[in-house]
TrEMBL record:
Protein name in the entry: Orotidine 5'-phosphate decarboxylase
Domain Orotidine 5'-phosphate decarboxylase: 5-230
Family per record: Belongs to the OMP decarboxylase family. Type 1 subfamily.
EC number: 4.1.1.23
Residues noted as binding substrate in the record, renumbered to the chain: 11, 33, 60-69, 124, 185, 194, 214-215
Function: Catalyzes the decarboxylation of orotidine 5'-monophosphate (OMP) to uridine 5'-monophosphate (UMP).
SUBUNIT field: Homodimer.
RNA-binding among keywords: no
Source species: Centipeda periodontii DSM 2778
SMART domains, per the entry: OMPdecase
Enzyme's top EC category: lyase
């Protein structure tokens, strides 16, 4: 049975491949993540299509620009009625505050339920070398925690973070803060380009609210069985 804690990433290039994957997953998946690949190819129509099928949608576009542009961009996305939207915390406190205020005001003015707004902390594909290469001197874990605190201060509902940082964020930001974790790899599945990974059970145990699972489901020989295995593992915790 579907469980909103599992968000399947629709990281496929065409409308046909998206529709086929959603059909194959059937009622095992209730929540989808639409990211850059599909949104840039198809625009908002794919979000509307999923909503018409009573699926929930995390529209993962990681907005990162000046405060005014991000705020207005979110207001445009609001009209697609996604359930979760996100910005990149690297845009800083002022940007996140403006984003949150703009989204809440627009939702109220237009009579649309306000989506959750979350902040990407540090991409789960980055490791310590990538981080140092950008000139950062502290650890990724410290940066993630600092960014999670800033997101909370700015009024965001939660963050995207790797499962490795989840327990500490949960401790510091409290029970109500959403922690959405990509970088999920069931035992025996390739890490691909991800670096800070964990199993579904490990992520739930660490305190994740929702798991984003991409390749481990859509690239599996049988995506439905792969999704059901992830669900079973989550429910066993
Ligand atoms: O295939 P895989 O499970 O690695 O896909 C993870 C998904 O989560 C991708 O769509 C990626 O864009 C997204 N994501 C991530 N790390 C973040 C934020 C989003 O991997 N920090």
């Amino acid at each position: 049975m579907a469980d909103d804690r599992l968000i399947a990433a629709l990281d496929v290039p065409t409308r046909t491949s998206a529709e086929q994957l959603v059909a194959r997953l059937g009622d095992s998946v209730s929540y989808y993540k639409v990211g850059m690949e599909l949104f840039y190819a198809l625009g908002g129509g794919i979000v509307t299509w999923l909503k018409e099928r009573e699926k929930k949608v995390f529209l993962d576009l990681k907005l990162h620009d000046i405060p005014n542009t991000v705020g207005n961009g979110l207001c445009s996305l609001l009209r697609l009625r996604p359930d979760i939207l996100n910005v990149h915390t690297a845009g800083g406190l002022r940007m996140m505050k403006t984003a949150s205020e703009a989204l809440h005001s627009a939702a109220e003015a237009e009579g649309i339920p306000c989506p959750k707004l979350i902040g990407v902390t540090v991409l789960t594909s980055m490791d310590a070398d990538d981080w140092a290469g950008l000139g950062h001197t502290g650890t990724i874990a410290d940066a993630v925690l600092r960014r999670a605190r800033l997101a909370q201060e700015a009024g965001l509902d939660g963050v995207v973070a790797s499962p490795a940082e989840t327990a500490e964020i949960r401790r510091v930001c409290g029970e109500d803060f959403l922690i959405v974790t990509p970088g999920i790899r069931p035992a025996g599945v390739s890490n691909d380009d991800q670096r800070r990974v964990m199993t579904p059970a490990g992520a739930i145990r660490a305190g994740a609210s929702q798991l984003v699972v991409g390749r481990a489901i859509y690239a599996a020989a049988d995506p439905r069985t792969a999704a059901e295995d992830v669900l079973k593992e989550m429910e066993s915790v």
